[in-house]
């Protein structure tokens, strides 16, 4: 049961991140069981996993729905990211090898190109990716897992709301952060991380407009076929 439920949770996660399943969308156990040709018990395990990640909300007597985060939740998510990344900054500052610094700088170069081309979608992906690379370089698998869960929740935020991000400013922060870390300026790097995430949160424009009806079977069909 475990492996199959894990596969289902991964597919549903991808569909949410790629905006095929929108916040508030109902996830019927029976519909999902039919789509994946499994029992409702297997689907229930997948939904529980997704609820633990904050991607799905389980409501008594109503079922499961794609989560619809609030502005307060957005603040809490980015506060948690700040705490994790400040710890990583203290670990990496002045200690990362040449290959690690080069990887971070190369990522920033890719971001520069995306911003210059006004490719907001790619800029979003690379922006989150920079923080994932930073945390991966810590080589702490527990922190990486916690960070990855939070990053998945930021993807849900982006699927829910429109935004006005200052991509140039956020990109500039990444370059400055590398310089500060390389120079061993831990306190300054940690402060920049806090300000950076605060500015990201300010870029979200929470919208309470109702989402369109989603055909769950159609939304998941291409992901299921990819797994086949």
From TrEMBL:
Keyword Transcription assigned: yes
PROSITE patterns: HTH_GNTR
Species the sequence originates in: Primorskyibacter flagellatus
Occurrences of domain HTH gntR-type (ranges): 2-69
PANTHER family membership: HTH-TYPE TRANSCRIPTIONAL REPRESSOR NANR, TRANSCRIPTIONAL REGULATOR, GNTR FAMILY
Matches recorded under InterPro entries: GntR_C (IPR011711), TF_FadR/GntR_C (IPR008920), Tscrpt_reg_HTH_GntR (IPR000524), WH-like_DNA-bd_sf (IPR036388), WH_DNA-bd_sf (IPR036390)
Record's keyword terms, sorted: DNA-binding, Transcription, Transcription regulation
GO-annotated molecular function: DNA binding; DNA-binding transcription factor activity
Keyword Transcription regulation on entry: yes
Protein name per its UniProtKB record: Transcriptional regulator, GntR family
Entry superkingdom: Bacteria
């Amino acid at each position: 049961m475990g492996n199959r439920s894990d596969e289902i949770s991964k597919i549903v996660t991808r569909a949410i991140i790629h905006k095929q399943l929108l916040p508030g969308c109902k996830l019927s156990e029976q519909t999902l069981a039919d789509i994946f040709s499994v029992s409702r018990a297997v689907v229930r395990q997948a939904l529980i996993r997704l609820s633990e990640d904050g991607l799905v909300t389980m409501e008594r007597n109503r079922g499961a729905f794609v989560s619809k985060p609030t502005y307060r939740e957005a603040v809490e998510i980015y506060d948690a990211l700040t705490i994790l990344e400040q710890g990583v900054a203290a670990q990496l500052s002045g200690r990362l090898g040449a290959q690690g610094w080069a990887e971070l700088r190369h990522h920033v170069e890719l971001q520069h190109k995306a911003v210059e081309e006004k490719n907001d979608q790619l800029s979003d992906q690379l922006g989150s990716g920079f923080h994932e690379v930073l945390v991966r370089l810590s080589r702490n698998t527990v922190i990486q897992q916690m960070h990855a869960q939070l990053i998945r929740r930021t993807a849900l935020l982006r699927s829910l709301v429109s935004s006005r991000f200052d991509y140039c400013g956020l990109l500039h922060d990444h370059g400055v952060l590398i310089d500060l870390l390389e120079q061993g300026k831990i306190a300054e790097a940690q402060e920049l991380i806090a300000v950076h995430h605060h500015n990201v949160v300010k870029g979200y424009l929470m919208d309470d407009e109702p989402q369109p009806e989603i055909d769950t079977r159609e939304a998941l069909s291409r992901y299921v076929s990819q797994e086949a």
